[in-house]
Amino acid sequence: MPWITEQEQTDLLERIDETREWLDGKIEEQAALAPDEDPAFTVEDIASRMKKVDTLAKKVFSKKKPKEPKKVKVEEEKTEDEETEGKKDGQEDVINLDDEEFD
Fold this sequence. Notes:
Elements: H1 6-32, H2 43-61, H3 80-85
Helix pairs in contact: 1-2
């Protein structure tokens, strides 16, 4: 997505890395604790950290692609001069009424 700046991408990746490092550290702390000790982290801790990541991610991913500037339409309509160039001088449009069915 080229319309997302490098800074926005970097900020999001840094936030994700920080959260991952925090979680890895907490998991190691929890592994060192005995089963009867208080936990090193709770679901609420994870939810609050993930909310920060989620908020930033939504901001970055919901950024809409900028509209491309309208291109100036080249006049494709032929002018009367261009239309008559295909006809030979003195030749006019001939309508054959015998081929037409009229109601």
